[in-house]
């Protein structure tokens, strides 16, 4: 367990942060002139992008050679999509001050796709650079 937390601690903390930030009562914050229309969707995308990068970072650091397979990347992506769907269901049923939204789930999936793509691209580029 200690070894698992060594590599995946930041990802677990980030997932808890995402759950908390998606469950708090925002009241009229989204109507503030400081935020623009669609800020919530951009936030969802960024939260899940960061979540994917942190989970992949933990997985890559945990193994030798430092790489990530397509299968493992898909499992990480699917788990994050499930987490996003769970948050939307919780917003619709438990956190009644929030509303579950399909558009938010779409932005979660989009952020997860961007995160997986960037991790796979970076790992591939580092692998090619090390072979030279």
Describe it.
The protein is mostly helical. The chain has one domain (2-19, 38-131). 74% of the residues lie in helices and 0% in strands. The protein has four helices and no strands. It has helices spanning 2-21, 39-62, 70-93, 102-131. It is elongated, with a radius of gyration of 17 Å. It comes from Mucilaginibacter rubeus.
Summarize the biggest pleated sheet. none
Task: Summarize the helix and strand pattern as letters.
Answer: HHHH
Our Rg estimate from Cα atoms comes to: 17 Å
Number of structural domains: 1
Low-confidence stretches: none
Mean pLDDT: 86
Q: Level of helix content? A: over 70%
Number of helices: 4
β-sheet strand percentage:
under 5%
Number of strands: 0
Q: Structural class given helices, strands, pairing?
A: mainly alpha
Terminal Cα span: 37 Å
- The backbone outline, from C-alpha atoms, is elongated
Summarize the structure.
Helices cover 74% and strands 0% of the residues.
Topology:
Elements lengths: L1 H20 L17 H24 L7 H24 L8 H30 L1
Feature tags:
132 residues; mainly alpha; 74% helix; 0% strand; transmembrane helix; VanZ family protein
